[in-house]
User: What shape does this take?
Amino acid sequence: MKSKGLFIIPAVLVLFFVAIGLRTNSESLMRVNDGKKMTLKEALPDLAKARIIFVGELHDRKSHHDAQLEVIRALRESDGPIAIGLEMFQAESQPQLDKWVEGTVSESDFLPVYHANWNLDWSLYADIFRYARDHRIPMVGLNVRPEIVKQVAREGFASLKSGQKAELPPVTCVIDNNYKDFIKRALGAHGHGGMNFTNFCEAQLLWDSAMAVHVLDYLKTHPDYTMVVIAGSGHAWKQGIPRQVRMRSNIPLRVILPEVAGKSEPDTTTTSDADYLWLHN
Assistant: This one.
């Protein structure tokens, strides 16, 4: 449809481009060190200084996954090559993730692999996985077998046999009071129910440590890459995986957490928790 020699953009496309602009330019972030609200575009120069960017989530919140995708998209379009680190996948599932990114497996055939690794609905993460596939962004499994983590949560790290420890990257589980306090604040009663709290903390530390090692291993062999790590907020907090990274490397990193009532809020979040909060709109 033309008018006076000019193409008229259909209304639906106008709305689409407006939505893209609002999504990119709205003040959706708060910089924690000074409380300044800013757009993702404004934060990009600082984010681009990091080689690891943690973007936390509550697993069942689609809006959190949408925010993660915005960060991934913005970095891909503005910086060098990126990879996506996944709490949701075990490291041993890497061959299946590679096939997904390469486009050699259909979505229907990939879904059983996804569900073998993660028990939340595919629709929550599908946009991220499809975007990675469309743009050939490597996806990296960071986790260890859940059976090992569950055993540590029930019986402690010392209960692992030598064969089980051989499956793990080189990690230890030394729990101090600061880490216990962090777990209480970040996770509360989440996951540990009536089990021994120290064992539960050891399981979380094993989780954080193993994922940190897997992140660093990937970046060591891919020195030109930046990794966006998507993980539960309890793991993405600076005292979680980032702390374990810091203990092993001085590689620059940033942490973005979603605003969550009672946990990560503008008035209570400090730079020891995160660098940015993703605010409710």
In short: The longest helix spans residues 197-221.
